[in-house]
Design brief:
The protein is built from eleven helices and 14 strands. By secondary structure, the protein is an alpha/beta fold. It is globular.
C-alpha cells in the first residue's frame, strides 16, 4: 500500500487508507479517481483519513472519534496496515506473574494503555499447528513441529519422527487472499538469514514462519524470496499491508521455565524496542493494527499435550479501546477473522464461523 506521509500526499492515498484499499511497499495501485478526503485527529495527535465511500459490506463509521470504514456485520475497522507478532509458549498466568514481579515492564505499560484479553487461547499443541491455523484457518492435520524442507518424507504420528519429516500443505492461505485483493504482505523471521530459509539455524526456527509451509509460497522461488525474509529487512515506516513477525528463540519468550528465566525479560525488551517502533510508525498511526499474541500456553506437549490455559494478547490500534480487558473467549481463528475483516478479505477455514475480536473496538 502506498504509504501515508502525514497527508503530505493525501489525495487518493487518504481514501485508500481509510477504506482498506491499495498496496504496500511491493506494488502501487493505480489512481482510481476517488476524490480527496479530509482528515480527523485524535486527542493524542494521531491523524487518520476520514471516509465517505467504503467497499461493499463496509460503512463509514467512527472509532475513538476517528472516521473509518467498518464491517457492516462485525464492526471491525478497515486498517491501513496490520502487524502481527507471534510470541512463544507462555501462559497468561506466567506472564502475569512476571509482570507483577517487574520482569516485563513493556507489557505492564501496554496493559495500562491498550486492549488485552484474559480468555484467549491457542488451538493446538505444539507450536506449528497454531501458526498454520492462524494463517490458513485450520491446522491442516499437522500435529507436530515438522519441517518445511522438501524431500524428507511424509510425517508419521510419532513425535521423534516428526522432526525429520516435511508437512507443507497445498491450501489457500492468508498470503493468497492478500495478493488476490491487490494488497501486500511479508513474513519477517528474526535470524532467518537468506530469504525463504527452510533450515533451522541457531536461534532461527523454521516452524515459526508459517508461510514456508504453504506449497504455493515455498515452491515459487520468486514469490518466496521476496516475501519470506529476515527481520533485518523490516521497517515499520515502509511496511507492507500485512506483516507477520517471528522473533528468534531468544526474543520470543520460548519456554519461560526455571531453566530459561531470562526468556520473558529478553522478549519484553525486544517488544519494547520493536513494538515501540511500530507504535510510533506512520503505518500504525494512520489507522494500523498491532497484535502481539502467544501461540500456546506453557504446557506444549506435542501430540500428547492436553492443557489449554489462556495466553496473552495485546490489541493496539488508533481504532481500538484503551485500558480495556476482554473476558470474551477467543482463539487464533477469531484473530484470523479479525485480520480478514480488517483488510477487507473473505474468511477462510474455521475463521468463517469465528467471532472476530469485535469487543476490543468501540461500538460505531
Amino acid at each position: 500500500m502506498t504509504r501515508l506521509h502525514i497527508l503530505a500526499v493525501a489525495g487518493v492515498t487518504s481514501l485508500l487508507f481509510a477504506c482498506g484499499s491499495g498496496a504496500g511497499d511491493d506494488t502501487s495501485s493505480p489512481d482510481s479517481g476517488t476524490p480527496k478526503e479530509d482528515a480527523s485527529t485524535s486527542p493524542d495527535g494521531t491523524t487518520t483519513p476520514t471516509c465517505t465511500t467504503c467497499p461493499t459490506g463496509y460503512a463509514c463509521g467512527t472509532a475513538n472519534g476517528l472516521s473509518v470504514c467498518r464491517s457492516s456485520s462485525t464492526g471491525i475497522p478497515l486498517f491501513s496496515h496490520v502487524f502481527v507478532v507471534l510470541m512463544e509458549n507462555t501462559s497468561l498466568s506466567t506472564l502475569s506473574t512476571a509482570m507483577k514481579g517487574g520482569s516485563a515492564p513493556t507489557l505492564t505499560s501496554w496493559q495500562s494503555s491498550y486492549a488485552t484479553g484474559t480468555d484467549y487461547h491457542g488451538v493446538a499443541h505444539p507450536s506449528l499447528p497454531n501458526y498454520v491455523a492462524l494463517t490458513s484457518g485450520d491446522t491442516q492435520g499437522i500435529g507436530c513441529d515438522c519441517g518445511a524442507a522438501p524431500g524428507k518424507g511424509t510425517c508419521h504420528p510419532l513425535a521423534d519422527y516428526c522432526l525429520t519429516c516435511t508437512c507443507t500443505s497445498s491450501v489457500q492461505n492468508l498470503a493468497d487472499q492478500i495478493e488476490t485483493a491487490g494488497k501486500t504482505w511479508k513474513d519477517f523471521g528474526e535470524d532467518m538469514g537468506t530469504p525463504c530459509n527452510v533450515t533451522d539455524n541457531g536461534n532461527y526456527a523454521v516452524r515459526h514462519n508459517p508461510f514456508l509451509y504453504y506449497d504455493d509460497v515455498q515452491t515459487n522461488a520468486s514469490r518466496c524470496n521476496s516475501h519470506v525474509v529476515d527481520f533485518s529487512n523490516f521497517d515499520p515506516n515502509s511496511a507492507p499491508d500485512f506483516s507477520f513477525i517471528a522473533p528468534n528463540l531468544i526474543d520470543d519468550m520460548h519456554n519461560p521455565d526455571p531453566t530459561n528465566s531470562t526468556n520473558i525479560p529478553n522478549g519484553d525488551k525486544w517488544l519494547g524496542v520493536h513494538g515501540g517502533a511500530i507504535l510510533n510508525s506512520t503505518g500504525y498511526k494512520s489507522g494500523g493494527l498491532l497484535v502481539v499474541v502467544w501461540d500456546e500456553d506453557d504446557g506444549s506437549g506435542g501430540i500428547v499435550g492436553t492443557t489449554d490455559d489462556p495466553v496473552g494478547i495485546w490489541v493496539m490500534s488508533p481504532y481500538a479501546k484503551t485500558k480495556y480487558v476482554s473476558t470474551t473467549k477467543a482463539d487464533h481463528y477469531a484473530l484470523l477473522a479479525t485480520i480478514e475483516d480488517g483488510l477487507g478479505l473473505p474468511r477462510i477455514g474455521k475463521a468463517v464461523q469465528a467471532q472476530p475480536l469485535k469487543d476490543y473496538f468501540p461500538a460505531q
